Amino acid sequence: NCKCLMSVPGPCEPEDLIDGIIFAANYLGSTQLLSERNPSKNIRMMQAQEAVSRVKTSEGDSQALTEVDLFISTQRIKVLNADTQETMMDHALRTISYIADIGNIVVLMARRRMPRSASQDCIETTPGAQEGKKQYKMICHVFESEDAQLIAQSIGQAFSVAYQEFLRANGINPEDLSQKEYSDIINTQEMYNDDLIHFSNSENCKELQLEKQKGEILGVVIVESGWGSILPTVILANMMNGGPAARSGKLSIGDQIMSINGTSLVGLPLATCQGIIKGLKNQTQVKLNIVSCPPVTTVLIKRPDLKYQLGFSVQNGIV
């Protein structure tokens, strides 16, 4: 009974993620944070950095690192002691809310499971607080590995493969679905992580048709989505004044570009995506699938003289 999985861009073979793959890592520690149910990606990034800071501060000089095997599959993520193979942690994939890779550090953020009768794992900030304002306990595990980026990408890919498996289990062939239909089906299932809800909401997914002159460049600047992005694709960073992209009025800085003319950009290197965009020069029509992301703020910094520094630095696309 061949599943014939569609190709899901990423470092792993989709079939391998169903059985599970293993990465070697060092376990540095865990910490617990309080978080709203659906914080923005920027807040998630800050939470991940806070978790790393806490764990590193509490590390004693004499503390020996625990070597672990990180098991990743479309069902769950497990952490096994490398020597004894004893299970140290076991999280269903759908409870993972965020993954961040910062250099050789991986932060895995998981929701605490809550019974329907709002348990102590959920703390209301004010009486009668709305769902979004409740504070939930988030457990953050911190690991060190040379494969930090591969681990983060593999977990992101596991979500995509799990979606396909879910659709097939319900008798739906993912190849027969348009992106909107695919998104609508995912959106009806409260089954995977909070950050993907934004990508699953069909109101945020748009299919755009851009008109341009033959020989004219599209007029966009793209950057990588930054560390920890659970759907690794490129982000629209700027548009050329008067270019086809800007003229269309359909795009916003911060939009994540999922595909161009039917070619998925998810998981592709930035240089490859830039090459695909350059290859559009002789096209007169360009079809884009994008996910609208929260508004981007433009900041104008004034300084009295060029000898003064701007006062910020950028690392991996994060200020």
TrEMBL record:
Extract one GO BP annotation from the record: chemical synaptic transmission
Q: Which UniProt keywords apply?
A: Phosphoprotein, Repeat, Transport
Read off the Gene3D superfamilies from this record: 2.30.42.10, Pleckstrin-homology domain (PH domain)/Phosphotyrosine-binding domain (PTB)
In this chain the PID domain maps to 19-194
Q: Does the keyword Electron transport apply?
A: no
| Gene Ontology MF terms | amyloid-beta binding
Fetch the SMART domains from UniProt. Answer: PDZ, PTB
Which Pfam families does UniProt cross-reference here? PDZ (PF00595), PID (PF00640)
The answer to whether keyword Repeat applies is yes
Q: Which InterPro entries match?
A: APP-Binding, PDZ, PDZ_sf, PH-like_dom_sf, PTB/PI_dom
Taken from the UniProt entry, a GO cellular component term is: plasma membrane
Q: Which positions fall inside the PDZ domain?
A: 207-292
State the name under which the record lists this protein.
Answer: APBA2 protein
Give the species: Nyctiprogne leucopyga
